[in-house]
Amino acid sequence: MSSALLTTNLQDLALISRGKVRDVYCTSSESLLLLVATDRISVFDVILKNGIPDKGKILTRISLFWFEKLKDGVPNHFVTANIDDMPEEVKEYRDQLDGRCMLVKKANVIPIEFIVRGYLTGSAWAEYKKSGTMHGIPLPDGMVESQQLPQPLVTPSTKAEQGAHDENISPDRAGQLIGSELYSRVAAMSLRLYSTAAEYAYSRGLILADTKFEFGLIPSTTGTSEDEVILVDEVLTPDSSRYWPLDQYVLGKPQPSFDKQYVRDWLVSVGYRKGLESGPGGNGEGWSVDETVIQGTRRRYLEAEEMLKNECPQA
C-alpha cells in the first residue's frame, strides 16, 4: 500500500486553491480546470495531520461512477479522467495524478452546499432533540434517531473558507443569498439526484442517509440567455455522504457506516470538541489519526465502492 498523498506539487501549473481534500489548478485551456483529490481527510471542518492512503483515488472512482450514472438527469462538470487526453502540461505529473484527477469545466460555483437528508441523524438529530426542527424546518413529533424522514429535505449550508466552519442555514436564508428562483431550481435538482441515488444504493444493500451536492453556473449550451446549472466537485462519495449497511439498520441508535462518521467518533473519543480545532488542548499542533483508524477508514471506503459497483475493490 502506498503512502498518503497530502499535497500536490505541480510547479508548472498555477494553483487556484487547496481545499479540505482537493487541489485545483489552472490549465492551458481557459475553460478547463484540473481537480486533484488528495488523501487528506477533514472532520468537523478540520484537516487532520495524516491522511488515508489511496483515499483520493477511491473518491475519484466513486465520483466518476456517479457522474456517469446521473448524467442524464443533471449535467456535470466532468470532462475526462484520462491523463492522455489532458493538456500537455498535466501529463508530465502523471506519477502524482494518475487515478486521482479529473479535467473539469470551469464554473462559477454557487456559494451554497445543498445537503439532502433522508434520515434523522448527525447535526439534524441534535437540533431535533432540542427544538423538534431540522435547519429550522418543523418535523413530526416523536421521531427517533436514524429514522427515515417523511420525505427527503434539502437543508442548505454556507461554504466556509478553509479552517472555518460551514454554517447551517434555513432555505429562506439560502434563497436570500443566491436568489429564491435559483435556490428553488437547484434544490429541486438536488432532490431528484438524491432520490435516484438512494434508490440505486438501496438496491446494492446501502442506505444513503444524506449527502451534499455542490453546483456551478456555466454559459448556456442551448443558446438561451440563462446560465446553465451543472453538478460540480465530488458526488456521492463517503466524504460527502452517509452510507449505512442496510442489513444492520436499527431504529433509535447511531448506525455503523461507510463514511467519515467513524473518524468523527474516534476524534471525539480522544478529546476533540468545538474550540479545540488547532489540536489537543488547543496546542496548535493539529490532530493526528491512529493507524488503526486510518486502516479502518480506508477499508470502509473500499467496501462502499465495492457494494455500489458490485465489484472487487481496486485497493
Q: What do these coordinates show?
A:
With 315 residues, the chain is α+β, with helices and mostly antiparallel strands. Helix content is 30%, strand content 24%. The protein has 8 helices and 15 strands. It has helices at 55-70, 88-91, 94-97, 122-131, 171-178, 180-203, 261-269, 291-309; strands spanning 15-18, 22-26, 32-37, 42-43, 46-47, 78-80, 101-105, 108-109, 112-119, 133-134, 137-138, 148-158, 206-218, 228-232, 241-245. Strands 8, 9, 12, 13, 14 and 15 form a 6-stranded antiparallel sheet that branches. Strand 10 (133-134) and strand 11 (137-138) form a beta hairpin. The longest helix has 24 residues, at 180-203. The chain is globular and about 60 Å long. The termini are close together. The mean pLDDT is 93.
Compact description:
The protein has 315 residues and is α+β, with helices and mostly antiparallel strands. The protein is 30% helix and 24% strand. Helix 1 packs parallel to helix 8 (291-309) and helix 5 packs across helix 6 (180-203).
The number of helical runs is: 8
Main structural class: alpha+beta
Total count of strands: 15
N-to-C terminal Cα separation, in Å? 8 Å
> Gyration radius, to the nearest Å?
19 Å
User: DSSP strand (E) fraction?
Assistant: 15-25%
